[in-house]
Amino acid sequence: MTQDVYVPANNWVIAVSLVAALILNLMPLQGDFLVLRPDFVAIALAYWNVNHPYKIGMLIAFFLGLMMDVGDAGILGQHALAYCVIVYLTSVFGRRLRLFNAVRQAPQIGLILFMMQTVMVLIAISTGSPSPEWHYFLATVTGALLWVPASVMLTTLQKPKADPDVL
Amino acid sequence: METTPQFFRHSPGPFARFLVFALLSCLLIAEDTRFKYFPNLRQAIGVMIFPLQQIAYFPADIYDRIEEFIASFYWMEENEKLRQLYLENKAQLLTLHALEAENRHLRNLLGAVEKNQLQTGANVILAEILYTPRDPFNRKITLNKGSYHDIQLGQAVIDDKGIVGQVTQLYPWWSEVTLLTDKDHSVPVQVLRNNIRSIVTGTGKNDELALRFLSMNTDIQRDDLLVTSGIGGVYPSGIPVAVVQRIEQDSGGDFALIISTPVAGVDRNKQVLVLPLVPAALNELGEPAQGRR
Fold it and tell me: Strand B163-170 and strand B156-158: pairing?
């Protein structure tokens, strides 16, 4: 893969974080927790794509989306497209986003998550589903709030691994 | 930051990639909602994520165990209550058997079509609700039994009060049940009070079912109980489905807008019963009933 000027991330950390995000997404929750639960996979994908571009291809995002579709009992391809949107948007705006720190990135990530959810709603409506309640978009807010701790955590996770890799 | 021009020589840009995958997703969506050429694709992915799901259920599992442990202090009381309930039900079942025999006898006398046997207790499968998937666009639940436990596609699922839904997607170790309230789901019903037949359809909203295509002057009232009519051969007849909640004049339409609420409570209980498929003989029974209309 092409190397960026940034320190390359350990592939294992990426893989483990994505699997962990998938597990968190598959957790059986009910009621209010279910409404507020952010899309962990989307956040993990956004983090890796913003901070280490070209590490995660769209193919991986696509397959993660398919897994989410089956786990969520949704339309096959809905999450897949949504995660590809995340990868696309973050690879387009990634350089701009890297100029800010995590706190100032959060609202912009929220906007990207909002676009992802809009794509999901559009797909659902186009296949004949009723439009969801307004609180469907609350997951965007919690996702943006989660961005800061998630990016701090993922950055510290790869720090000891990344340093000896450089030279 | 501007030192990565060689990237563009190796692979297409993000937008081209995105277009390719967007097209692929759209094809998949169309395939999944319309054509269904690859019914096993879902199962294959399902098997792949099964271990991850098991890990994800782990905390909920522990929570359930703790809850069960606390509940175990009240087992004696519950046992006594259940035993009393069992006796009461047993008495009712005895009269039901008598009525059934009498009914069959009378039907024989009249030369009427033999109605399907009441399948009380005939290899029903007890299943537990694993979770409600997050997808807000459809109404489904996941059960902890799948094709490995002899669950079949199309089986009706009930709880202690009435119909919950129908098994619509089968995986080796779990299955998906489409609830009554799903917008794609319809149940042939009849009003218990006067045997008016109709079809009740989900609206996609929680706790709301719609009775369509009944005119304003139809004899239907609030609190009427709707039971399955058995037409269509999916659901056995006579199981409660919904209670009529309100009747409104559809603005501009010729039909009444009849909203009812399902009697079964999916969010209240954890166990459900999966009924066996209605035998093919009933499908023939459905024919003359439809022809009469």
Answer: antiparallel
